[in-house]
Structures are given as structure tokens and as C-alpha cells.
Design brief:
Layout: E1 4-5, E2 11-12, E3 14-18, H1 47-59, E4 64-68, H2 78-85, E5 93-98, H3 103-113, E6 117-121, H4 127-134, H5 139-149, E7 157-163, H6 172-182, E8 185-190, H7 208-216, E9 221-225, E10 234-238, E11 244-248, E12 261-264, E13 269-271, E14 280-281, H8 283-287, H9 292-304, H10 324-327
Parallel strand pairs: 3-4, 3-12, 4-5, 5-6, 6-7, 7-8, 8-11
Antiparallel strand pairs: 1-2, 9-10, 10-11, 12-13, 13-14
Helix pairs in contact: 1-2, 1-9, 2-3, 3-5
Length: about 325
Amino acid sequence: MKPLVDTFGRVATNLRISVTDRCNFRCRYCMPEEGMQWMNRKEILTFEEILRLAKIFIALGINKIRLTGGEPTLRKDLTQLIAMLSPLPGLKDLGMTTNGFFLKEFAGDFYRAGLRRINVSLDSLAPDRFAEMARREAYQKVMAGLDELAKYPIRPVKINTVIMKGFNDDEVLPLVEFARARDYQIRFIEFMPLDGEGVWSRDKVMTTGEILDSIRRKYDLIPKETRADHVPADTFRFVDGRGEVGFISSVSEPFCESCNRVRITADGHFRNCLFSLEETDLKTPLRTGASDAELAELIRAEVWRKWAGHQINLATFIKPERNMSQIGG
């Protein structure tokens, strides 16, 4: 099959699959503290449906899949899904983004099932502040999960960190030093307007430039990868050879012109952009007898109409109806 190309010539090769909208945290930049309405379990794609869609996407040129949520480890028997996806011909990379709460219990199972890359969200090294950010007392569980993860050759381990001004902006260097000491790659992700409570404002965003300035006061950095390499992050190596740091600058320096990502929500809707205002329902045709070729054409059409980029920096920006946890982070 021909690759998934949009009208701007971008080729989609990276698919993020949300396996659940449920989460045991309530992170400020993602979800409201109360009042979440969870999807009916019958509306969530089954593992067999995910596998079928994954095979279609791989035939269309997707070679990287990342499992997300909500919190993916809340999905019962997730190890089974990993084992179903990991051996697929043409799939070069199977990863997962998690809050780390259940890694102590499942890291070994995930590795044995075929998981080889993982991102763990960690926004503070202070237990009290961690609890304020996640609105859950879970710091020690996440640390235990990271310790367990170290027993297995899952590499790289990336630490996803959202810095919010006036909240954890004094932890940039401590988080960098934590990652360097443990051989993690830390990735700073700018606070985006996808939170569940609508509290986002530009003055709460600590930009990549500001974070870089903070790090460079102590460390020398050299570029490793840039968005020209069709990756979402600008990545730097420390000159002393100890570790890397990445930046996802969705607000201050959008990478839309080189974006190769597409997404499936937990309820089987296909999104060509994190900030899309429209989706294509794949679940209904999937469950009513559509052929692989028909599903492939729906996917192609959605990718083809991908817009030039989100409009966060324009007055015309409209926030998607779904928050981050409902879309799949």
C-alpha cells in the first residue's frame, strides 16, 4: 500500500494507541480533579480490534506504535496486548507512556511480552509537590517502579516532565541531575491547553528556551536530533557524555511542519493531530463488517485532511472538546 501522506507532504509513521481513558492520577495539566465521566467498557476497542487496526496501519507505513491512556497499565491484561503487537512484521518500535504506578508489579511482564521502550511521567522529586501535581499520594510507588524497571534492558527510559511556572519551575536542574545519575533521558514537555479544568494560560508555560537557559547555566549541551530528523523533540547530549535531554516545544516552537504522528482514541476514533477538532470513527465500521481495504481508505482520507498545524499561537485557536487523558497523551 502507498504510505500515509497528507496534503503538505508529511508522511505518518508513528501511531499512538490509547487503550483506556481511565487514570488513577489527576494531573493538573491533564485532567479535572473530580467529575470525570469514563467511557463505557463496551465502547473501548478490544485487543483483537486493536491488533487488526495495527496490522492495517503497519501495511500503510506505520512502523512505531506507542500505547497510552489515560493510564495504560489500568487496562486489564495489558501484557497480552503487548505480546500480540510486539512480533508484528514491519513494526520497528513498540513503546508505552505510563505514570509508573504499576511498574513495580508489571515491568518484568511487559519486558517479557516484548516492550522495549518506555516513558514515565515524573513532574517533581518532592513527594508533597508530586502529590499536589498528580493529586494522588504516589511518589514512593513511582520511585519503586523505576527501581524495578532498572532490572530489565528496556532502553531508553525517558522521563516526561511538564514544568509549570510558579509550581515546579525550580526543579529543572534537580530533575536533570536525577536523570543523569540514573541514565534516563529527560524530556521537558511544554504545558499545553489540553487540561481538563481549563486553567491553561500562556503565563504558566515555561518555554523550552527558558528551560534550556536554566540548564546551560550549569551544563554544556550539543544537539543530537532536531525536528528536521522527523522526531517531535529537539534532543541534546551533555558534553561530558552523561545523558541526554529532550524538549517538546508544542507551544513556543511547534513542530507541526515535520509531524509524523497520528492517534487512535480508546473508543476507536482516529485523530490526525493531538489538537484535531474532528475525528474519524473506525470502531463502527470495524464492528459492522468493513473490510481492511475500506478501513484503510478511511484512514488515508483522515491523514490527507490533516491541517498545516494547531493554532495555539493564533487568536483563532479552539480547544478540542476532549482533554489529554481522553485523547491519549
